[in-house]
Amino acid sequence: MADPDLSHLSRPGAEIAVRVTPKASRNRITHDAGVIRAYVTVAPEGGKANAAVQKMLAKALGVAKSRLVLLRGQAARDKLFRID
Questions:
Q1: Which of 37, 47, 52, 76 is deepest in the core (most CB within 10 A)?
Q2: What phi-psi label fits residue 73: left (phi over 0), alpha (psi between -120 and 50 degrees) or beta?
Q3: How far apart are CA 54 and CA 69, in angstroms?
Q4: Are 63 and 10 in contact (CB under 8 A)?
Q5: What is the phi/psi pair of residue 65, to 5°?
């Protein structure tokens, strides 16, 4: 199953809420009923899971990962990213 195309959400200043599940069996992003969920295989240690989510989300949005800024949820499952 390929990651969804979220390019329609990629406009400057947009804020994107993501629910993260670390230590999943495989990396993937789902978009169902307006909820974006990210599943990453890495453990939530030292920001590794945040970096993995940022990389996958940037790819799905079609933007550079440097344009995604984590606003809220550094140590939580619910994260809020902004596109700069």
A1: 52
A2: left
A3: 8
A4: yes
A5: -65, -25
- Give the global pTM: 0.91
**DSSP string for the chain:** -PPP--GGG--TT-EEEEEEE-S-SS-EEEEETTEEEEE-SS-SSTTHHHHHHHHHHHHHHTS-GGGEEEEE-TTSSEEEEEE-
Closest listed residue to residue 58, CA positions, set 83, 33, 76, 41: 83
CA distance 44 to 35: 21
**Residue range 44-70, pLDDT digits in tens:** 999 999 999 999 999 999 999 999 999
34 with 21: CB under 8 angstroms?
no
